[in-house]
Amino acid sequence: MRRLVPTFALAVLAGALAACGGGPDLAYNPAPQLLPHSIQKLALRPIVNRTQQFGLEDKLMLAVRDEFLRDGRYPLVPESDADGIVAITITRYILTPIQYDATLAPTTYKLRILVDLSLIDRKTNTTLWTERNLEGALSYPAPTLTGGMTEEQAREGIWEILAPMIVKRVVDGFGSVTGASERRITGDAPSTAPQDKPAAPITPVVPAPY
């Protein structure tokens, strides 16, 4: 009987490892990081617009609200009744010509709108997480061309990109969407800082003749 005890113990240990996913052929599937169980109802805080483009916040708010209603997993309620608060800030609006014709008139533009997204626990008034630089980008032909778009039409296309990204990040958790890197944004964005005046030419000093 004494010889059977180690064999039996090894068998139990092997079974436990297999049950825990310790087998070499089993894939590692971590559980998704969803909203805490304490958050069952969400509120949308009025969007903050830090750009100089008027009215962006209203259009994005409508698109995000419609997307939450379409998703249907978490009801939207007034902030006083919510468990979690979704806070959105529009941080950048970048419109750049990327193609030109023979007369150097722009024929294609690229519009990029970036937002910061946070989830706040209303009961504790603490920010659970913040996802920065969620980006909606759209390249489109100039409105003077066949099939072209106006800037307003391009914005509408970006709301259709950003709204699902925002809802997915809130509902499906970390890793479901990822913001753009700050380096790439600053590298692609045109500078809005005032341009320095060109330096005055330096006049060489000629020594006086003896």
Number of domains: 1
- Overall mean pLDDT score? 82
Examine the coordinates and then state which fold CATH places here, giving the name of the CATH topology. Answer: Double Stranded RNA Binding Domain
Q: What profile does the largest beta sheet have?
A: 5 strands, mixed
Number of helices: 4
Distance between the termini: 117 Å
Helix-strand topology string:
HEEHEEEHH
**What is the 3D form?**
elongated
Uncertain runs with pLDDT below 50, 5 residues or more?
A: 21-25, 191-207
Radius of gyration: 28 Å
* Strands, count: 5
Please, what is the CATH homologous superfamily?
Lipoprotein like domain
What portion of residues belong to β-strands?
25-35%
What secondary-structure arrangement, pairings included, does this model have?
Elements: H1 4-19, E1 42-44, E2 48-49, H2 56-71, E3 84-100, E4 106-121, E5 126-141, H3 151-172, H4 182-188
Parallel strand pairs: 1-3, 2-3
Antiparallel strand pairs: 3-4, 4-5
Q: What does this protein look like?
A:
The protein is an alpha/beta fold and 210 residues long. The protein has one domain: Lipoprotein like domain (Double Stranded RNA Binding Domain). It is 29% helix and 26% strand. The protein has four helices and five strands; from the N terminus they run αββαβββαα. Strands 1, 2, 3, 4 and 5 form a five-stranded mixed sheet that branches. A hairpin with a 5-residue loop joins strand 3 and strand 4.
